[in-house]
Amino acid sequence: MKTLEQVRASLKPYPIEVEFPDIRRWKEGTDGVDYVHSFDSGVAGPHVMIMALTHGNEVSGAITVDAFLARELRPRRGRLTLAFGNVEAYHRFDPQNIDATRYLDEDMNRVWLPGKLDGELDSIELRRARQLRPVVDTVDLLLDIHSMHEEAPPVMMCGAQRKGIDFAATLGVPQTVVVDAGHPNGRRLRDYEGFNDPSSARNALLIETGQHFSRRSRQVALDTAARFLVTTGTVSPEDVVEFINTQTPQPQRFLEVTDPVVADSMDFSFVDDFRGLELIEQKGTVIARDGDTDLVTPHDHCVLVQPSLRHLGVGVTVVRLAKILDVAPERLSF
Ligand SMILES: [Zn+2]
């Protein structure tokens, strides 16, 4: 039986191409919550939030929020909140053990259930989520910035509701949008309360910018977040022009997760060096082996979403299988 350390040792390490900003200068928040900065324009409009570091080693979001704060970006309408999530994990990042500080006690992107937040359990991540919750409770439109274990094109995770698809389409980037209901072992910030309620006007997106430590991931994070603020009417294009990629975005395609694949053993391996968004044409194609079992694609035109063994464990999702959706999204106005 392989250990997680053995599995990780067999995977190709990625270079750290970006600098980790020193975010301690942003510790004192504007409203009494550390690392949360909120600015009110005084003009009617939505409360828009950009969240970085829901996962402590996903630095592209930290680079973006740090840059927007340093730029002294302020909303022209509504309210803008720029926040760093799991700062304790971020501060403990170890370049020799790059996967270790995704979280410290538990995954902060699985705790966003009112029953859990109100409950008796305690962890570093629950404490932080409880600090953030009063702010999150007043947010209308959220962008939660994440990155990926493997180098792959960026994907927008828009949740399971139609309003999420429309929000991703209104934003227009990135090229690939994934419709998914989250994870069975907890609730993501993106799916918290009204964000996942079809009758609520609140809406949220989760961007996976690319591999955690790549320059491209940083560019995607800055570009997506800047476009998010323009799209929501929070800032004018000229306020964020230096962050926006000048290339015209590609037409979007929409995928829907059909099957999360959960490892049953530590002897799980993919049959190829999958990194993400590979298209497997034929139903029944073997994509992985789990112990003695072959895993096959359940349908034709199957797309692999975020395959990775860097957090392999029994019961851990190691890839999600998706189909290509035929949808005609509507443009939202805010
Ligand atoms: Zn993440």
Concise account of the structure shown:
With 334 residues, this protein is an alpha/beta fold. The protein has seven helices and 14 strands. The chain has helices spanning 4-9, 59-70, 87-91, 114-117, 124-136, 162-171, 215-231; strands at 36-40, 47-52, 79-84, 141-148, 155-159, 176-179, 203-211, 253-262, 268-270, 279-280, 286-290, 293-296, 302-305, 317-324.
Which outline best applies? globular
- Overall helicity: 10-25%
Structural class computed from helices and strand pairing: alpha/beta
How many helical stretches?
Answer: 7
Which small compounds were modeled alongside the protein?
zinc ion
Sheet with the most strands: spatial strand order: 1-3-2-4-7-5-6-8-14-13-10
How large, in whole angstroms, is the Cα Rg?
A: 19 Å
According to CATH, what is the topology of the largest domain? Aminopeptidase
Low-confidence region ranges: none
Q: What's the N-to-C terminus distance? A: 53 Å
**Mean pLDDT over all positions:** 96
CATH architecture of the largest domain: 3-Layer(aba) Sandwich
Domain tally: 2
